[in-house]
Amino acid sequence: QPVAPIWPDTCAQNGLVLVCTGGGLTGRVGFEGLGQTQSAAMLKVRALDGTTQVVTMTAAAPTARIVPNFDPDSWAGRADITAAYVAIGFEHILQGIDHLLFVLGLMWVARGGWMLVRTITAFTIAHSVTLTAVTFGWVGVPEAFVNAMIALSIAFIGVEILRAERGQTSVTLRRPWLVAFGFGLLHGFGFANALMELGLPGGAVVLALGAFNIGVEAGQLAFVLLALALAWAWREMTAPLPRQTGPLAAYAIGGAASFWFVDRFVLLLGA
Questions:
Q1: Is the pLDDT of residue 195 over 90?
Q2: 176, burial (CB in 10 Å: exposed 0-12, middle 13-18, buried 19+)
């Protein structure tokens, strides 16, 4: 079932035009079909006075409220913007299989403990830096190039996992936080490109950026905790991992990343 909008009772769609009476577009809006072909949807409403309201709908909450005279500087307006962009950031990271594979690879080479904390923290700081820099227009990199390089970074981590399983060493295995920071700068461009496609509400750019970043970090932390919980549960069952688990994981991560790189590099050449 395709996703279809649900408008307030005072509004009627006439072709590509939405005609509303009784105060304009106010009341509850939503989308039918969420959770089937699309997990969430965002609606951005720009008023004639230039103010922007952003609402997010999910399968669990398929409708949201559009308020008249929306003020992004009010407490209610800030709460709406924060909730919308936290949800968008959380959903984006959990749907970004390439980013999650990279984080999983970092966890594999960091080998737990404080090294893991330092590595994930370095990755977080780095992609927050480039996300902010792109949002404010300080730097910019073509999206096609960024996507191809992100795939290449995942393939690199796959090689490092294989090296670790063979008992070898490298800068990555000795200082995974350093590599995490370097590639984190690259992944931040990917997050920024996704945010730029969605757009930011006028007058609340900093708030929306911060909320989106919080959502990304929350999703990333949830993934890391889930992976650690599964590893702990496996150890508690005293079931040793098969000896070939490491090499298989390395080839799986590296193989998927190599496929993405070739696919994205072809698009880059076409662009």
A1: no
A2: buried
